[in-house]
Every structure is written in C-alpha cells, then in structure tokens.
Write a structure and sequence with these properties.
5 helices; mainly alpha; elongated; 90 residues
Length: 90
C-alpha cells in the first residue's frame, strides 16, 4: 500500500475512534445544534493537529483530502451513539 493511503487510513480510523468517544460524551451532556457543532469542530480539527503539515506535504495529501476523509461514516457512528446514549440515559 502507498504511504499516502496508509496515512489516509489512519485519518479514517482516528475519526471513527473520535466519533465513538464524542457520541457517547454528547449523549450525556448535549442536545441539538451544539452536539453537531461539537462533533464537526473536533472531528475536522484533530487530524490537522495529529498529522504534521510537513508530513502531509511530503506525502502529497491536500487539505481537502484530509478534511473529508471518513467524515460521513464517522458522523453516522457519532449520531448512532449519541442517540443511543441519550435515549438510554434520559
């Protein structure tokens, strides 16, 4: 597998892990628009901090690729866990 693909796979799985944690955390405390904003703010910002810009430039990964890699599947995971946790607790 190419190094670029491996890096994008890591971004995908990082977002999935974040979605699980954020979905459960949001189920405890958040409802409505703040929950969505919380997820999208953290899920889009974290990979930028984790993956150094020099590393991304070296692997020819654009900012848009980093931004969109795995966002919708992670959002689905987040939403399922958010609803499940909130429904269980309230």
């Amino acid at each position: 597998k190419a190094v670029k693909d491996v890096t994008l796979d890591r971004v995908y799985w990082l977002r999935q892990a974040l979605a699980v944690v954020l979905g459960i955390a949001s189920g405890f405390y958040l409802t409505g628009l703040p929950g969505f904003l919380f997820f999208f703010a953290i899920a889009t910002a974290t990979p930028s901090f984790v993956f150094n810009k020099a590393l991304l430039k070296e692997q020819h990964i654009s900012a848009s690729e980093l931004l969109i890699e795995g966002v919708m599947p992670a959002f689905g995971t987040f939403l399922c866990l958010w609803v499940l946790t909130y429904s269980t607790l309230h």
